[in-house]
Amino acid sequence: MSHRWNIGRMVARAAVAAAMVAVTTVVAGCSGESTVSRRYPCHFTFHTEWHPTSMIVTALNSYNYYVNIAMTTYRGAYVVNSSDAKGTKEPITLSNELENLAYSGGIYLGAGGAYGSIIVGRTNFNGIVAWDGQCPNCATGYTSSYQLKWTDNATVVKCSNCGRTYSLETGAILSGNKGDRLMQYIVSYVPNGVLGIGN
Q: Which residues form the signal peptide (predicted)?
């Protein structure tokens, strides 16, 4: 009985997170100019309650610490691959049905599609943010060829193709030619619960 209750509670939390992303999307769309990118579909769900010591949870709770998140599959399960500016890597296999169910329709991580990535972290002034891991000025279609790379500063990423550098605090171009800011996605986070990122 308690097992069914826990699964029901987890499904309810996931539904609440999805609803929060949807409501935030509608509100952002009604408030004039939105900073949310809709160029490429993005959908990421992560149950922090089952992975409380993950790099993703650290990024959600620590200022100016960001992780790049990509996904793969292994033996029928989805794997969340996180990495940070220091080169630390963490693969997390999603080991239960509820976690894997979120991706039954496919992986959509922005401009790179199934091979894309998103960068997530807590800023000093803007709370938790999620950026597309591809350069917004070089990616003109689904591609993973313009992956942003960390610089010596863990809050700045660079495109090796065009040379632009971007702030992870604001998404703005810091150096290089004028152009578009980083592609931003909506973040919904219930501490010790579900992280939802999307557009």
A: 1-28
Q: Are 133 and 119 in contact (CB under 8 A)?
A: yes
End-to-end CA distance of the chain: 36
For the cut 80, the answer to whether the pLDDT of residue 48 exceeds it is: yes
Span 142-169, pLDDT tens digits: 888 999 999 999 999 999 999 999 999 9
Q: Where are the beta strands (DSSP E) in 1-154?
A: 42-47, 67-74, 77-83, 89-93, 108-109, 117-122, 128-132, 149-150
Domain ranges of the chain: 2-198
For residue 182, count other CB atoms closer than 10 A to its CB: 27
